[in-house]
Amino acid sequence: MSFKFSAGPWNVSEGADRFGPTVRASIPLIEKMEKFKELGIDAIQFHDDDVVPDISNKSPEQIEKEAGTVKKQLDNLGLVAEFVAPRLWEDIRTVDGGFTSNDPQERKYALNRSKTAVDIAQILNCKLIGLWYAREGTHCYESKNPIESFDRLVEGLNYILEYDKSVKIFIESKPNEPVDRSFLPTIGHALAIAEKTIDSLRVGVNLETAHAVLAGLDPATEIAFALYFKKLFTVHLNDQNGLRYDQDKAFGAENLRQSFNQVKVLVENNYGSGGEFVGLDVQAMRTQKLEESYKAISNSIKIFNILEEKVRKFDYDFQKKCIDRRDYEELEFYVLELLLKS
Length: 342
Ligand code: XLS
Ligand code: MG
Known about the structure:
Layout: E1 5-7, H1 29-39, E2 41-47, H2 48-51, H3 60-77, E3 80-85, H4 104-123, E4 128-132, E5 137-138, H5 146-163, E6 168-172, E7 181-182, H6 187-194, E8 203-208, H7 209-214, H8 219-228, E9 232-237, H9 256-268, E10 278-280, H10 295-313, H11 316-325, H12 328-340
Helix pairs in contact: 1-3, 3-4, 4-5, 8-9, 9-10
The protein binds D-xylose and magnesium ion.
């Protein structure tokens, strides 16, 4: 089976970081989508304001019109929208978080903004809503009551589930950054909170490689855990060099064996057979020149495909022999050789 890939417009960024401004011109959405298509991408991941820039200052009619334009562009290119995620971490009203803000007005804003994201998804004919809980956590631990916060997260999920009975939601877990401590740091936490909602079957997860590494966990096992619960609605494959800032490196760039095992668990469990995409969430390095800023994406696809081939070559009989003899050194060497040899 061949996998279908998705990527988000934010992956081809202008290169700003905490210590310096933008270094590349911004590329219009339509150009990014055309280029994605050329690179073999089948679906686009969207934040609500990727579809409708400056969304907070636009009327519902304007939002509908602009989303309609993007839908036409997608159709013309033979692309689909994979998900729409309310970007609840950039607006000034989400400075203390969205759903878990201490200010009731700001919590209301988060709910309304999510509703708009669902409306946009409908226009794009997309049935998946993404929630990366960026600021749902604390900088000062004592500033939020954790139990109340979990309740508020469930309220937010229920609100979306009620508003549109045809959508599914994924939670993208991450342990920290931009907050010091997140309320839902791992896939296990996300799956547990899903159980508290009014329609838990419609609430699943998105495992991002870098986020698992930042939590000190193995991404392949996090993927497997979600698959076990039939809750892996999508993945964000990328890579991360240990416990640093969130790097969103090209898939496989830091830990090939760990990447191999992510592909392996996806292949072995028929991921994609329910229409799921292999999502990439990789950032162009700040040092890349504008013309070369798609390489993190194209290289990730290449690496994924090479690793998929290796998985298909994996000798399960030999694996069994090693397991029967409890010779895991031999098995480990076999995997390393498989990865090293062409
Ligand atoms: C940031 C997140 C973000 C989500 C989509 O770390 O990965 O890009 O994937 O909202
Ligand atoms: Mg992500």
